[in-house]
Design brief:
Number of helices: 10
Helix content: 25-40%
Oligomer: single chain
Order of helices and strands: HHEHEEHEHEHEHEHEHEHEEEE
Largest sheet: 9 strands, mixed
Strand content: 15-25%
Shape: globular
Radius of gyration: 18 Å
Structural class: alpha/beta
Length: 298
């Protein structure tokens, strides 16, 4: 099990002394709790009228349908709103990746590492029943959870699969307008929410994750159309799994480029073209970068 002091020591390479002190103090606080309104079944006004005290909910910067849920709120997984698919409980900063991908109506969208379904259902809401959302999860029992959540949220324009990313993307080469790779990672952004995540953490684990992440990205690229957009995200802080994966991918794939975005959340990295989110930024932890396959302008 990781010594938390080792983790904080590693973070000192990413944060100033003052920022690190704030970061450490954040771990004395409870994790953020978030909920996203599923616009396929509900709207913000209806949600607020049914969910209890409106003072228990505050908008997040990561998604226009996302809310922080206060510790005092009685809203839980037992709520009819949850069982009916009107809402999806989701860590607030995890909403950032689908927001960054920003699918248009009619797009064909691939969520390559999709379980349990938070990002897929968010992407499906953006599509509003148009186009296609193909959600893939290589682990079969997790794919079943993904299927259940997509059905609960009323997503009808979906394909759910449980395939190796390389096999799937090779078979669907050039099919998708947008691709999301929310890659398996060392989960440093889960430490406050789930202390057991510490048990699997090690320097060696972050390095092995980065190798797998680059491999998945090199599979995902095949599924994109010319001028298609790919968002890579993780819920970890380690540069080996974030900036270095993107830099290595761009080095190996000169036909891709980082895209600039004007989202208001988190803080910029990679020449101000990617995003890092720390607990003091309002979320447990996320990284997201938006890439474009060069071709004719969209």
């Amino acid at each position: 099990m990781i010594d938390v002091k080792d983790f904080f020591s590693r973070m000192s390479s990413l944060l100033s002394k003052e920022e690190l002190e704030i970061f450490i103090k954040e771990y004395e606080k409870p994790a953020f709790k978030g909920v996203r309104v599923n616009t396929l079944k509900c709207n913000e006004d209806k949600f607020l009228s049914l969910a209890g005290d409106k003072g228990d909910f505050e908008k997040t910067p990561f998604c226009k349908e996302g809310f922080y849920v206060s510790e005092e709120s009685s809203l839980s997984g037992n709520s009819p709103l949850h069982h009916g698919g009107a809402i999806y409980f989701q860590e607030p900063s995890a909403m950032s990746a689908a927001t960054l991908l920003s699918p248009d109506k009619g797009d064909f969208v691939l969520d390559l590492c999709a379980a349990p379904g938070g990002k897929s259902t968010q992407l499906a809401s953006a599509l509003g029943g148009t186009g296609l959302i193909w959600s893939n999860e290589i682990v079969k029992n997790r794919a079943n959870i993904l299927l259940s959540n997509m059905e609960r949220c009323g997503v009808s324009n979906a394909v759910i699969s449980s395939m190796d990313p390389e096999t799937l993307c090779s078979a669907l080469e050039g099919t998708f307008d947008k691709v999301l790779v929310d890659a398996p990672c060392s989960g440093e952004g889960m430490f406050r929410k789930d202390p057991s995540a510490y048990d699997e953490w090690s320097i060696e684990h972050t390095k092995s994750c980065s190798v797998r992440q680059l491999k998945i990205l090199n599979s995902a690229k095949k599924a994109l159309k010319s001028s298609g957009v790919l968002v890579y995200s993780t819920c970890t802080f380690s540069p080996e799994e974030n900036e270095q994966v993107i830099e290595n991918f761009l080095m190996e794939n000169p036909d891709f480029e980082l895209m600039e975005s004007e989202e208001s959340f988190g803080r910029k990295t990679l020449d101000n073209k990617a995003y890092r989110i720390y607990p003091m930024d309002g979320g447990e932890g996320h990284f997201a970068a938006k890439l474009r396959k060069k071709g004719e302008d969209i």
